[in-house]
Amino acid sequence: MRVLAKDIPAAARNNSTEEVQVSGWIHRIRDMGGIRFVVLRDRSGMVQLVLSESTAIKEDGLSGSGTETGLTLESVVHARGIPALNEKAPGGAELQIRSLEIINRAQADLPFQVNGDTTRQGLETILDNRILSIRNPKIRAIFNVQATIIEAFSACLRSLDFTEIKTSKLVWGGTEGGTELFEVEYFDRKVCLAQSPQFYKETMVSSGMERVFEVAPAYRAEKHDTPRHLNEYVSLDIEMAFIESEKDLIDLERQLLAYIFEEVSRKNSSDLALWNAAVPDTEAVSRAPVIGYEDAVKTANDWSKGTRIFDINPEAERFLCEWAMKEFNTDLVFINEFPRRYRPFYTYPSDANRTMSFDTLFRGLEITTGGRRQHRYEAFVETLPRFGLKLEDLQNYAALLRYGCPPHGGFAIGCERLTSRILGIANVKEASLFPRDRKRVTP
Predict the structure, then answer these.
(1) Strands 332-336 and 290-292
(2) In 3D, which of 148, 169, 128, 136 has the Cα closest to residue 437?
(3) pLDDT, tens digit, for every residue of 121-153?
(4) Residues in contact with 255: Cβ distance below 8 Å, sequence separation at least 6, in sequence order
(5) 159: how many CB neighbours lie within 10 A of its CB?
(6) Sign for the pseudo-dihedral over CA of 152, 157, 161, 166
(7) pLDDT, tens digit (0-9, with 9 covering 90-100), for 175-224
(8) Residue 61 phi/psi, 5° resolution?
(9) Beta strand segments in 170-297, E
(10) What burial class does residue 423 get, using C-beta atoms within 10 Å of its C-beta: 0-12 exposed, 13-18 middle, 19+ buried?
(11) Which DSSP letter does residue 52 get?
């Protein structure tokens, strides 16, 4: 009977004498001469295997004894034995092995030390050796947390009567303009990789679905190389009809983040522990202040102790999160009422200078941008010249508004950014499974 590593302590406490099988990767080997202690790793965790001189080891039909057959780190094995208590072993128990089968022997010259301390490895080394580095338990924990974020995001929205959609990533152009787009050969013409599903989200809101969400990749052809940017990332997108202002969206994101944090805390306690990380509780999310753009700039200047702040740049984001922690004991800040000059043409104005839009800052980094959208055709047409846009270039968007579009808005959360902030990861690339930037397209 195959069991997982995490099941061995319970079996040992029950004084089980039944032989069980575990399968996984050899994570560590300690040879004591005649007895070898092998740590095996599977999806659930680790368990210590005890191999004696009498342990039967088989590989490719060849048989040998426990001291005659060499084992290598990262080899894949089946091991059969009896659970036993040992307070010095991981989880307080071990498996006394009677037979071990090497399913696939790993070569000994590993280019990356899977069982090593990742803090001693540079980011480039980790990413260059991603095929192996992803096996490291601390690194793999990043993506356990990320899986919970995506699962919780979707579950919470479904409970609120949102419908999940999947939209095309090959598009004619960008909703937000023609810049920062990757061109792709498409038969006899060029198309682009989508930088946002926004047009499609708004289309489905107008179809009568009213509430939609999508979890999908997004692409930005930005020529940057910073710890906060990726050229391909996972976007957690939301659109909702019949809202009055961006404050309805902020309320929704509070509820959503509180649920995500609660699920990560419940499901990923061991992953958080590997990073010495914690998530805000529901009360901390509820305490997050909402501050207008102009007041936010002033507050950032007051908090910066001499550094001049002119807009909400990365420095200002850090200062505002420090201010929120000091004044409100929370990791979150919502900034709204952004000036029209800083927001896309489709953003709904609250007056001549301000918009019904917002950003969410979490632990020093912007993780969300959103707001109410323009839903009136005439106002949309009037706005275009201010942004240097022509109606003939936006006919699909115009049709969406011309034929009955409800008041609506939405936002997008950068999944990798949220993951990195939860775990305290300095560079968002490390929170991307296979990151894509200006120089990296492999593995």
Answers:
(1) parallel
(2) 128
(3) 999 999 999 999 999 999 999 999 999 999 999
(4) 156, 160
(5) 10
(6) negative
(7) 555 568 999 999 999 999 999 999 999 999 999 999 999 999 999 998 88
(8) 85, -5
(9) 170-171, 183-186, 189-193, 211-219, 232-241, 290-292
(10) buried
(11) -
Tokens 């990560």 -> residue: 264
* Distance, CA of 59 to CA of 104 (rounded, Å): 8
Q: Which residues of 40-55 are buried (b: 16+ CB within 10 A; e: fewer)?
A: bbbeebbbbbbbeeeb
> Identity (one letter) of the amino acid at 131?
I
Please give the Cα distance from 237 to 229 (Å, whole number): 18
Q: Is 347 exposed, middle or buried (0-12, 13-18, 19+ CB in 10 A)?
A: buried
Rounded to two decimals, the pTM is 0.94
Measured CA to CA, the distance from residue 366 to residue 350 in angstroms comes to 22
- Which three-class secondary structure state does DSSP give residue 359? strand
CB atoms within 10 A of CB 144: 17
CA dist 426 and 119 (Å) reads 12
- Please give the backbone phi and psi of residue 371, each rounded to the nearest 5 degrees, phi first: 160, 175
